[in-house]
Amino acid sequence: MLPPHEIADLGLAQAGVRRVEWAEKSMPALRGIRERFERERPLEGMRIAACMHVTAETAGLLRALRAGGAEVALAASNPLSTQDDTAAALVTEYGVSVYARSAMDPATYDRNLVTVLEQRPHLLLDDGCDLVNIVHLERPELLAEAVGGCEQTTTGVLRLRRMSAEGALRLPMVAVNDTATKRMFDNRYGTGQSTLDGIMRATNALLAGRTLVVAGFGFCGRGLAERARGMGARVVVTEVDPVKALDAVMQGYTVLPMDEAARAGDVLVTVTGNRDVIRAEHLAVLKDGAVLANAGHFDIEIDLVALEEMAVEVRRGVREHADEYVLADGRRVVLLAEGRLVNLGAAEGHPAAVMDMSFAVQALSVAWIARNHAELAPGVLEVPAEIDAEVAALELAALGVRIDTMTPEQEEYLGSWRP
C-alpha cells in the first residue's frame, strides 16, 4: 500500500529511481549514514514533516531517515523546483508521503505545507522556516507533540533567530545552515556553481566579457562572484554591510551602490535574503536586454510588482524559464525563473556531491535531536561540533584524502596556558 500523496504522475517512478541512484553515486557520506541508521534505528517511531526541494539529492536524505525508522511526509519548499519523477520514486519505492508537483500554483503550494503537518510530526525539517511559522501561528496545538527540528537555509535561520529573540520560538531548532561545512561547501561552492548553471541554461548567454552584478557578499554571494570571475565576467558587488563590502574590495571586486551597478550590469543576481533589493528606481536605469535572476530563498528580492507595472508587454517563455518584459521606452528586461531561486527553478540545484555534506550534517543532527530532545531548551541551536567534524572526515575519506593527527605533546600544549 502506497503512503498518502499528491503528486503529478506515479508512472514516472522508474525514471525517478534512475535519477536518485545517479545522485547517490556522488553521496558517499550519506550512504554510509543510511547504512548506520539501518543498524541503529535512531528514529524509530518518530514522525517527520519536511518542507524541502523535491530533488534526487533530497531523496538521499529522506531514504536515510526512513532507514532510521522515521515516518516521513514531504512538501515542496519551492513551486518550481520539484522533480516529478523523484516525487513518484519517493512515494512508490521509498515509502515517503509526498505533496508536490512541478509548477504548482500558490494555493496548492500553501495547502501542501499544511497537509504534511496533519500527521502531527515530532520533528520538523524546514527550508525557509515555513513549517515552523505555520505551527506557531496557525497550529499551536501541534507543539504538544513536536520536539524540535532543523533549518537548512540562511533565510530560515534569520527568521528563527528573530522568533527566538521575541520569545516566540517554542521548539529547539538546529541551525544546520550555520555549520562551517555547509557554509563552505553548500553556500559557497554549491550556490556559486548552480546559480551560474541556472542562468546559462535559461539564457545560453556568454558570461565572459559581460558585467555581472552580485547583490550581497555573504557566503553565497562570495561563491557566485568567484565563479563568475573565473568564467571571465567583470563582477560588481553591491552591499549594505561595510565589512563585507571591504572584503569584496580587498578581493579585487568593484563595489558600487545598486543605483550605479544597475546601469552597468548585463546580468544582475540578488543573493541577500532581504526584500526589494532591485526596486523600481533600479529597473528604470537597466540596460536594454539586462537579465535579472534571484538566488535568495524567497521571490521578494526583485520588486516583481514594480516590474509588472512598468512593462507595456510581457512575453512569457521567450526561452524556458525566461520571461521578457518590454518597458515603455522599448527596453527589454529578462526575468529568470519568475524571480524565484534560479538555481532550482532553471536548473537542478546544487550538485549531489555538495548536498552529500549538507544532508549528512542534517541526518546526524536529526538523530541527535531525537536522542537528546528532553534536555534541549527552545531556541536556535548550533550543530554539535563533533557532527560537523565527523561529516568533514567522512567526505575526506570518500575523496581519498588523508590528514595529520596531533601528537599527545601537541594536544597537551594547546590545552595548557603554561609555557
TrEMBL record:
A single Gene Ontology CC term: cytosol
Pfam families, per database record: AdoHcyase, AdoHcyase_NAD
Domain of life: Bacteria
Keyword Hydrolase: yes
Cofactor binding, note field: Binds 1 NAD(+) per subunit.
Residues that coordinate or bind substrate: 55, 127, 182, 186
The protein's Enzyme Commission number: 3.13.2.1
Keyword field: Cytoplasm, Hydrolase, NAD, One-carbon metabolism
Coarse class of the protein's main subcellular location: cytoplasm
Catalytic activity: S-adenosyl-L-homocysteine + H2O = L-homocysteine + adenosine
Pathway: Amino-acid biosynthesis; L-homocysteine biosynthesis; L-homocysteine from S-adenosyl-L-homocysteine: step 1/1
An example molecular function term from Gene Ontology annotations: adenosylhomocysteinase activity
Domain S-adenosyl-L-homocysteine hydrolase NAD binding as annotated: residue spans: 187-349
Function recorded in the entry: May play a key role in the regulation of the intracellular concentration of adenosylhomocysteine.
PANTHER family membership: ADENOSYLHOMOCYSTEINASE (PTHR23420:SF0)
Name the UniProt record assigns to this protein: Adenosylhomocysteinase
The organism of origin for this protein: Marinactinospora thermotolerans DSM 45154
